[in-house]
């Protein structure tokens, strides 16, 4: 009934109108989920992340400073937690060991007890990271480590169990050829697996790799792409390259071993707000301000796999689930890549009372 | 003998024209034959090798003649087919099949998934709460600032003046080399709701930046075919102070909706029309045509219109979220010619 319906969504997208959309690429349908049944601007999604413990729960950070828990099994929102303190929207969410980590734009990182039965609880831990934070990311290998960065806020890696000082604080690059200070604007951070390195993309169209294990606090590698601020970044499977997107909708794959541009992906017309690669398959989901979710094939050959128009300004989205059954679905998607994908059949799947099922015509791959 | 030569030359030409089907290469022998015989043309059936085309004839005159002959024949055949069809239609009378609609680029338009369904609740909610909601809820009334790029020439200045008569509650200011990013906070503090900047290149206006002010989207258009009032033929007298009606045609996609709302929010929202003036923004094939008319209803069905006011064509180049910030702003839509203009039947507005 409802469980199967919610589980078969491959990509989850949050929108500025407060709707969480689950997109089923196999059947080319987008399903809307709202906490209150009606879309509301105050619930605009600003951060999304998987909950701890497999991919059954999604944490949705809304503009009204509440974090809502959405269960993919049950297909509805299950609880929420209000997180006051600091100003601005959520810039990062994470969950570890039954606690919730939030970071807001004014630089307050708070760790909350993940107990949504209590009405209001004080944060277990509160850190001030510096104003103007654009992203906080949790290290998937070490869930207690988080990295923060922002506008004029250098990259810092914090250990939430350790001291109040950052474990690693990045240093700005040398002055440029006019002897002027190079401004800092870290827009997105990713941890590279199997090493301590971090990659950031900046609003001044640079991609930088930092290595806390090395003695230098300056970036180990710097590459530039384009002329517009880079807004989103994701690691590719294989982790030798990253894909970045900028405010003009240009997507590029940059090799991290040499700092070279490997290739670009086309299709987006608006600013890229969210990018996510599949953990093992060379597929990339991208969404942006042009209100379209696209799934791209990263290699052999590079191209657009599927396009979906959920009709709401879109925010960062998430990795597709890794179940074996869904792997088969992904496999069938790839097999279908060579021939035209079938048009949407107007199926009436299982319906829940609070869920509105939106069926969109699926467009075929180019 | 010159005379005979002329005659034979003339006869040769007529001979060429008379031979409808068999196109024979004319040789001097035939000319002589034509000169001798009276009316019968000997069918010098020198058949062409297959795969021969008229363009292979090296002699320009002969080639031209062959071509004109072929063209006339084609026209005759086409006329014959048309007549036949017409006769068949008349013969069938009522039972005739409906006339086939000619294909145009507009009706061959590629199906666009972003065309807004009028019953779509998400889009309705989105529009009810976007930056223009306060205008459509009658909470704010528009106040427009019109300016140009630095050091404008005569045409641009006159266009600005004429635009300010078309758009009510608008003020024209000289640019004085100020940066837009500095003008915008000042405008916001003086309660302006929109900013129009007309960009000029080589003494003609060629671009328009329309920025909705509190923190609304900024649209950048290419402007072409600008006609000032004195260049418009058979125009009426100057527009009066009445608030014009607005007509927005053919803004069907989601992007079209946003742009259409931007235009609508320039004019005061008043359904009681006083004064018979109307401003039209007509979108066709991604070009937006602006016209300003005065209309009068002579009877229930008949209207007379007079064109007043300037006339120009716009094409959207980019729509940016937030006020003008071309370098660090986030774009909702950017026109990318190599990706978006590949099909002649795909339009975005």
From TrEMBL, chain A:
Stretches the record annotates as Disordered: 300-366
Location(s) in or outside the cell: Nucleus, Nucleolus
Basic and acidic residues: compositionally biased ranges: 302-321
Keywords: Methylation, Nucleus, Phosphoprotein, Repeat, WD repeat
GO cellular component labels: nucleolus; preribosome, large subunit precursor
GO biological process: one example: RNA metabolic process
InterPro entries: Quinoprotein_ADH-like_sf, WD40/YVTN_repeat-like_dom_sf, WD40_rpt, WDR74/Nsa1
SUPFAM superfamilies xref list: Quinoprotein alcohol dehydrogenase-like
Protein name (record): WD repeat-containing protein 74
Species per Swiss-Prot/TrEMBL record: Ailuropoda melanoleuca
Automatic annotation (TrEMBL), chain B:
UniProt keyword Metal-binding present: no
Origin superkingdom: Eukaryota
SUPFAM superfamilies linked: Class II aaRS ABD-related
GO molecular function: rRNA primary transcript binding
Protein location: Nucleus, Nucleolus
Annotated segments matching region Disordered: 1-57
SMART domains associated with the record: Brix (SM00879)
Protein name: Ribosome production factor 1
């Amino acid at each position: 009934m409802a469980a199967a319906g919610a589980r078969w969504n491959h990509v989850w997208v949050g929108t500025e109108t407060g709707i969480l959309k689950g997109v089923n690429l196999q059947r080319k349908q987008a399903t809307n989920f709202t906490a209150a049944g009606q879309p509301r601007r105050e619930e605009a999604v600003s951060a999304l992340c998987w909950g701890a413990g497999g991919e059954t729960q999604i944490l949705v950070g809304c503009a009204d400073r509440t974090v809502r828990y959405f269960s993919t099994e049950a297909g509805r929102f299950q609880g929420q937690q209000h997180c006051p303190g600091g100003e601005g929207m959520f810039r990062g969410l994470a969950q570890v060991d039954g606690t919730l980590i939030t970071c807001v734009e004014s630089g307050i990182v708070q760790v909350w007890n993940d107990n949504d039965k209590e009405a209001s609880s004080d944060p277990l831990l509160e850190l001030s990271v510096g104003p103007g934070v654009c992203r906080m990311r949790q290290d998937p290998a070490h869930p207690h480590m988080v990295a923060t960065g922002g506008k004029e806020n250098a990259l810092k890696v914090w250990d939430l169990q350790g001291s109040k000082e950052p474990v690693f604080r990045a240093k700005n690059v040398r002055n440029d050829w006019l002897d002027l200070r190079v401004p800092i604007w870290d827009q997105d951070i990713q941890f590279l697996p199997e090493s301590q390195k971090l990659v950031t993309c900046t609003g001044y169209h640079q991609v930088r790799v930092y290595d806390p294990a090395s003695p230098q606090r300056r970036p180990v590698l710097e590459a530039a792409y384009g002329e517009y601020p880079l807004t989103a970044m994701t690691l590719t499977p294989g982790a030798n390259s990253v894909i970045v997107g900028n405010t003009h909708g240009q997507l590029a794959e940059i090799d991290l071993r040499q700092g070279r541009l490997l290739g670009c992906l086309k299709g987006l017309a608006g600013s890229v707000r969210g990018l996510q690669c599949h953990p093992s398959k060379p597929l990339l989901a991208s969404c942006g301000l042009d209100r379209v979710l696209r799934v791209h094939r990263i290699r052999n050959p590079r191209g657009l796999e599927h396009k979906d128009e959920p009709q709401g300004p879109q925010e960062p989205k998430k990795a597709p689930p890794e179940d074996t059954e869904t792997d088969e679905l992904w496999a069938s998607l790839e097999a279908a890549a060579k021939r035209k994908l079938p048009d949407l059949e107007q199926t009436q799947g299982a319906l829940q009372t609070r869920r509105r099922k939106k069926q969109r015509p699926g467009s075929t791959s180019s | 003998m010159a005379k005979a030569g002329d005659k034979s030359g003339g006869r040769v030409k007529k001979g060429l024209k008379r031979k409808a089907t068999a196109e024979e290469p004319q040789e001097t022998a035939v000319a002589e034959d034509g000169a001798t015989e009276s009316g019968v043309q000997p069918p010098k059936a020198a058949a062409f090798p297959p795969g021969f085309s008229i363009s292979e004839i090296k002699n320009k005159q002969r080639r031209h003649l062959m071509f004109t002959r072929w063209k006339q024949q084609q026209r005759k055949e086409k006329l014959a087919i048309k007549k036949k069809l017409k006769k068949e239609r008349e013969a069938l009378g009522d039972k005739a099949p409906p006339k086939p609609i000619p294909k145009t680029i507009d009706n061959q338009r590629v199906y666009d998934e972003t065309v807004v369904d009028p019953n779509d609740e998400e889009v309705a909610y989105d529009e009810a709460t976007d930056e223009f909601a306060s205008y459509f809820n009658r909470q704010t009334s528009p106040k427009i600032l019109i300016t140009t790029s630095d050091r404008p020439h005569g045409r641009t200045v006159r266009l600005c003046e004429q635009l300010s008569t078309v758009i009510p509650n608008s003020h024209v200011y000289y640019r004085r080399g100020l940066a837009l990013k500095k003008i915008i906070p000042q405008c916001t503090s003086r309660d302006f709701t929109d900013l129009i900047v007309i960009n000029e290149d080589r003494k003609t206006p060629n671009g328009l930046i329309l920025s909705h002010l509190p923190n609304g989207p900024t649209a950048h258009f290419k402007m072409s075919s600008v006609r000032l009032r004195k260049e418009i033929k058979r125009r009426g007298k100057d527009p009066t102070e009445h608030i014009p009606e607005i007509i927005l045609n053919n803004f069907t996609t989601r992007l079209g909706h946003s742009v259409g709302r931007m235009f609508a929010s320039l004019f005061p929202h008043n359904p009681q029309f006083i004064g018979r003036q109307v401003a039209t923004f007509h979108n066709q094939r991604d070009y937006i045509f602006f016209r300003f008319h005065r209309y009068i209803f002579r009877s229930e069905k008949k209207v007379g219109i007079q064109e007043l006011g300037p006339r120009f064509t716009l094409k959207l180049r980019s729509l940016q979220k937030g006020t003008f910030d071309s370098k660090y702003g986030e774009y909702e839509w950017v026109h990318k010619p190599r990706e978006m203009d590949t099909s002649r039947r795909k339009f975005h507005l």
